[in-house]
Specification:
heterodimer, A: 334 residues, alpha/beta, Rossmann fold, 2 domains, eight-stranded mixed beta sheet, B: 492 residues, 53% helix, ATP hydrolysis activity (chain B), ATP binding (chain B), ATPase_ArsA/GET3 (chain B), P-loop_NTPase (chain B), Anion-transporting ATPase (chain B)
Amino acid sequence: MDGLVTLEYVSRLQVVSGKGGTGKTTVAAALALALATEGKRALLVEVEGRQGIAQLFETEALPYGERKIAVAPGGGEVYALAIDPELALLDYLQMFYKMGGAGRALKKLGAIDFATTIAPGLRDVLLTGKACEAVRRKEKNGRFTYDYVVMDAPPTGRITRFLNVNDEVAGLAKIGPIHNQAQAVMRVIKSPETAVHLVTLLEEMPVQETVDGIAELRGARLPVGRVIVNMVRPTVLDAADLEFMETASRPAIARALSGTGLGGARRGGGADRLVMPLLEQAGEYAERHALEHEQRTVLQELGLPLHELPLLAEGMDLAGLYELATELRQQGIS
Amino acid sequence: MTTDPSATHDSASAHDSASAHGSAPAHDTHGPSRAHDPHRSIRPARLLEVDPLLDDPATRIVVCCGSGGVGKTTTAAALGLRAAERGRKVVVLTIDPARRLAQSMGIDSLDNVPRRVKGIDDTAGGELHAMMLDMKRTFDEIVEAHADAERAAAILGNPFYQSLSAGFAGTQEYMAMEKLGQLRARDEWDLIVVDTPPSRSALDFLDAPKRLGSFLDGKLIRVLLAPAKMGGRAGMKFLNVGMSMMTGALGKLLGGQLLKDVQTFVAAMDSMFGGFRTRADATYKLLQAPGTAFLVVAAPERDALREAAYFVERLAAEDMPLAGLVLNRVHGSGAAQLSAERALAAAENLEETRIVDQQDGKVGLCNSPDTHGCSESPASEGPGSAAPAPEPGSPADDRVVTDRAATDNRTTTDDPTIEQLTAGLLRLHAERMQLLSREQRTRDRFAALHPEVAVAEVAALPGDVHDLAGLRDIGDRLAAVRPELPETETGA
């Protein structure tokens, strides 16, 4: 790829968001694989408790612990962590305040449940906090434990609030350890160390949500990274083909079909019966093609690096994940 | 999550392939690869008939749930419109509609009140109202309705309340249920159609009211209220020790000032807690009542159907009445008799002919470097054919002209243009058939796991829906009972 690409700073915390159904978990996983390529170590973090990563990598549910989940081309490693807010909180109490016992008492009272589900943003504070801890963690030799941390984050509609929650919490809790923790997290998230990517499809609603999401992220001064269009269907018929299709003679198409052994070209013959349905499908394709073109233009106007990942005809599996990782790497994303 | 769904799926599909053997009807038009398709014969035991459900005066609430991105809001709106045009007085409660959809229904202004939707066919005497949920406002209204002015002002001004109401995990779910309860209590509509928030998981939406309720009832509340209430009371020494330890720990964690905000908030809300709890319980019961019908919405994709299966299981566990599954974006083909393999082989055949004749191998990717060079018009006149290759996505205008001109005197089968187009049509078809078989596999997996669930399939539209005509179309597709989808063969 372009030599300049490698000079670009690659953020160490890469947050992947996107509208539901756009495949953000898949893209996050592929991104982690791409970043880990060539002997790097990446941590893939899940925050929504859906065990999407385990399903993607075809392993059993992830425990709350960092676990090696895949080997990247060139000897790199991908670790995975499904953050459980409750355990993260107990962890945190123990780690920073030696309050393991109090933690158990709090749990009994329902305070942990309160803190992780009801208290405004506390849950999100814990999730982002844990991810930032992984970003900053160092080995004894002074090297970072993980070269990259990739977060499979909440969807576009909630991402700004999710990442910004620490600002809010720092405002609510004006002093104390939570306040300090929240501020430390915000320092990482608002720095060039972090990039927030949005995954979309070439459809109107996801694109609109992406545009709105970027405006919100920018408004909150959060670092927007790239836009990744997922599941891009191959171009089977180009604009010229579609134009020609309008005027093409149906009997001629039937004869071409017939020539390949698909039945008779005469009216009512096997090939003839295929013509209308095939043209109908092509008509739908044309309509979609035009819509996709429109949506692509909207995305191009955002002025952000734009990447496209192909729709995998065989559906998503582990091999497909590696394919997408290679694609991302070729497009200079890592 | 204690079960591993993939394991269940695997054993289930092993079952269907066994049962499908030998039962596949013989067709005459298909190729040799046809022999046995293990995925064909499983059909949902029941078809979900939407119209009887919508028409039944006993149906008072329809709840659409499902994972994000499957067309839940659109489905809710389409159902509402259809019911209204069939004569019912309907209100649709949407959570976060796409802007253009909201505009088309005239509810893009967030005022938390149902608005009458104009432009529907009201000849059957129905009405359609719609509203978009404003969760903060809904919360504020509860506070205002249940506290005296002074107390309400104290609550509304409390920083903790402001964060809580604007979006703690679960507020949206709780407020959606609260609003549903309010709408139902007004009894102005025959039918309420509810869209549910795009929850992280199936659990959130059913759990939020309970969770809030148990929090409000819980010991924690007592702890938080302790400093305010315990002042003059003796005889509670034992509790008191525990309390001060707890508040101490909380204070250490949250910072004293936040704890104070929380305590003030809880004290101010104290009188309302009973009300919250009662209403959460009432809404929960309402959801279990016979007049309620849950529709799980999904698309024929692995993740969406996995979530749908969770919903189905959860609803059953909670005794919530499930009417069925709405499967959006299902693809079909009018030429399903032609398999993907045969279509691809035929396309290659057509392209080979051309390679021999024209020695140019356009395969159909617009970004292949020779897109332009393959302009199948050796006789093409004019400078157009010498122009540089066009960028992908920007159709080369001059080339189109060339093709057009060339078309006029080429209409025979030998014509490479026709062959190229035909090959493209065949490749497109192969892609469609592969998609069909993938969709079929995921659907069959679901049907094997949950044969009891009635299913309504909605044929895919090429574009997005953002007007009443589009919603009406979706409604028609929803209600069209499709006893037999086009039979598919296993694709490549």
